Each structure stands twice: as C-alpha cells, then as structure tokens.
Amino acid sequence: MAAIEGIVDLSAIDNPIQKEILADFDRRRKARSLTLPTDDIQVKLMLRRCNEPICIFGEDILDRRERLRSLLSRMSEDEIHAILHLDEKERADIQDDQSTWYHRGPAALRDARVEIADFSLERAKQRLERARVQAMLSQQERALIKQATHRRIQTLQIYGTQVSGIRPTSFAEFSPDSKHIITSNWSGQVSIWSIPDCVEELKLQGHPCQVGAARFHPGAYKSQDPLLLNAASCDHSGNVLFWNLVDGEKPLAKLERHEDRVPRLAFHQNGRHLCTACFDSSWRLFDLETLQELIYQEGHSKSLFDLDFHVDGSLLLTGGLDCYGRVWDLRTGRCIMFLEGHQKGIYTVSWHQNGFV
C-alpha cells in the first residue's frame, strides 16, 4: 500500500473491496477538512446549489450541515470550490457595480450648485440653532415633551377616507398649508382634495397611463401664484407634467420625456429645481424656470425608485431596486455615502427632520 503524506494511492491497490474501504476513509478525511458555514441559511443555499433538498423530514440544523459535508466529500476540488465560494464571487460582482459614473453638465449647473449651497447653508444654520436649544433642555423637560408626544400619538384615529380612483392609489401628499391633499393613482388620474371635508376640488387630466407620484410645489397655496406652477406628476411612460391650481384639463408644461418609467419626483425646497427618479437607474435634476436638465446621474445597478431632498436642501437620498441607498452632495455632485443592509429592493427613502436618514 502506497501513501504519501497521509493520502492513499488507490491506483496501486488491486483488491476492489480494499480499494472501496480506503476510498471511504479518504472521503471521510476529506469531509473532516472541509470548512462549512454555521449559518443554516447559507447551508440551505449550498444544498440548493448541489440540487439537493434543503430540508429532510426529521433533520435538524446539525444533521443538515453534516449532509452537506457528506455531499461535498464526494465531489472534485473544483466543484467544492465553486459551491463554497460562489457568495464571494457575487459580492465581488456587487463591488464592481458600485462604481459611479459622472456626466458633464451644462454651464448652468455651476450656478445651480452655488444657489443650492447658499440656500442650504442658511437652513443648516437654523436647524443647528434649534438642535442647540433642544440640547439645553433638562432631562425632565425632555421627558415631558416625549410624554406629550406619546399622548398625542395614542389619540390618532382615522378622520376620513375617500376613493381616489378606480385603480390603486400610488401617492398622496399634504399641501404646504396642510389644507389640501394631492393624490395619484394607476388609472392615470391626479386629484387635489380639500381638508377636512375630503372633497375633490380639482381633477388633473393628462396622463395616458399609471401615475407614479404627484407632488406640491413648496409654495403651493402659500406664496405661489395659483396660475403658475403649483404641482407636478410623473407616470410609467416617462412623462413629467406641471400643473397650476386653476386648469386641470391641460398641463401647464411638461419635461422632455424620459426613456423609462418615472416612479417618483421631488421639488427642491428652494422651489427652483425638480428631481426625478427613473427606471433606467438614473436620477435627474431640472431647472424649473428653463426646464433644462442640469444633472443626469447614474450610480444604481438596477431601477431607481425613490428619492428625497435633505431638510437643508444640500443632499439627495436615493433608493433603488438594487437593495442599496446612496447619498449625493448636490453642491459638489459626488456620492458621499453608500447605504447597504437591505435584502430586497428599496421602495421609499426619507430624511428625518433632524437631518438624519
């Protein structure tokens, strides 16, 4: 019997029974040397890659792990490596997808960045002043505020309901004066409702398909002239329409059509810019005075679904169906934070009023 460093040379053995016994010993030695994951979910995934049932009647976690060990011990080294290290290859592919592409913008982009920076610095100053005032409160004062908040939350109840259309409602938002609500639905209808009686004041018609979202301009029902831009809506055909508060039969204006579905849009707090999320994995920033596209930004590996401006107006948060979120600095145009942790696609993102995600 020939052996080199504990490995038996089966080709030098003529007895078939002895060869089978030694092959079994060699397989057991190989099984003991395998390093397997302790996470049961990972074990099930590897069993599935082996085309084996992930669970057998009466089998517990340890039995399942030993069954995987036994299966792998009968495979070649290349097959074992492919099954055990497939996750590492997938993670490496994801890292490759995290690269961000920046496109050259028009000359007006620089002026827009300066305007956004000036606007956000003043709002950041006000937010930090409020934070300093709250930080000076005593523990007792903070406890009283929390108790009052909890009491108010406990008294919340349904005030009223209304049917917005014949198909599901896709979006709803309060107006800046909190006296109106704008809704959109998959029947292509956009409506503005009065609060608290929930009466439809204006029906906005112009979308040929499902509407993804409808939003109020920051100055709607406050500083903005009713005949000017007061609302915007987007649909699955890539259309973005602008509306006033007088005529719902014809849109005030429209953006150049996107190549793919537009599920969400958002007005910047300064009222001069609009951002759209597109299913072509990009987001875009537009100047509302000229309707010019200032930024076309890629970065997500799958469709982009939602976005939200920071309370200061300096940052943009985006979330996509690639399970990742990104934070973009509108003053420099760069992606400054990569958010991971979701196991499935992200359908909504939002900033807290204190400036955090």
Description:
Residues 38-90 form the Pre-mRNA processing factor 4 (PRP4)-like domain. It comes from Meloidogyne incognita (Southern root-knot nematode worm). The N and C termini lie far apart (68 Å). The protein has 357 residues and is α+β, with helices and mostly antiparallel strands. The strands form 5 sheets. A 4-stranded antiparallel beta sheet has the order 3-4-5-6, with no helix packed on it. The protein has a 4-stranded antiparallel beta sheet with strand order 7-8-9-10, with no helix packed on it. Strands 11-12-13-14 form a 4-stranded antiparallel beta sheet, covered by helices on one side. The longest helix is centred in the middle third of the chain and has 28 residues, at 108-135. A hairpin with a 2-residue loop joins strand 1 and strand 2 (7-8). It has 2 domains: 13-87, no CATH class; 132-339, Methylamine Dehydrogenase, Chain H (7 Propeller). It has helices spanning 16-33, 40-49, 61-73, 77-84, 86-97, 108-135, 139-154; strands at residues 3-4, 7-8, 169-174, 180-185, 189-194, 200-205, 211-216, 231-235, 240-243, 253-254, 264-267, 273-277, 282-287, 292-298, 304-309, 315-320, 325-329, 334-339. The protein is built from 7 helices and 18 strands.
